[in-house]
Structure formats: structure tokens, C-alpha cells
Amino acid sequence: MTEACKAMVNYMFELGYRKILIKSVIENISSNIVIEKIDFSFLKKRKFI
After folding, report:
1. pLDDT (0 to 100) of residue 27
2. What are the residues whose beta carbons fall under 8 Å from the beta carbon of 10, sequence distance 6 or more?
3. Dihedral over Cα of 23, 25, 31, 32: its sign
4. Structural domains in the chain (count)
5. N or C: which end of the chain has fewer CB within 10 A?
6. InterPro entries, from UniProt (predicted)?
7. 24 within a domain of the structure (yes/no)
8. Cβ contact 10:28 at 8 Å
9. Dihedral in degrees, nearest 10, Cα atoms 20, 23, 29, 35
10. Could you tell me if residue 43 is inside a domain?
């Protein structure tokens, strides 16, 4: 999954995107690990109700 996400992000930048926003649920540990592995950082963490 990490390699696919990296490829998608690279492709989006090639298309001219300058900013990419990723949202995930705090409890979804696997998704959060992938987000960190593709060198994204968390701007804020909040719980959705």
C-alpha cells in the first residue's frame, strides 16, 4: 500500500498539484502509518464524532 500511495502522490505532483490533503481516522493505525511512511505530517489531530 505504501508504494502505491507514493506513486499516486508523485503522479499528482507531476500533474501540477502543489498541495495534497490526506484525512484519516485517528483509530486507524495502519492508515496513519502509511501516511507517515510517505513523508506526510499531521497538521492536527481531532476526533470525529
Report:
1. 87
2. none
3. positive
4. 1
5. C
6. Acyl_CoA_acyltransferase
7. yes
8. no
9. 0
10. no
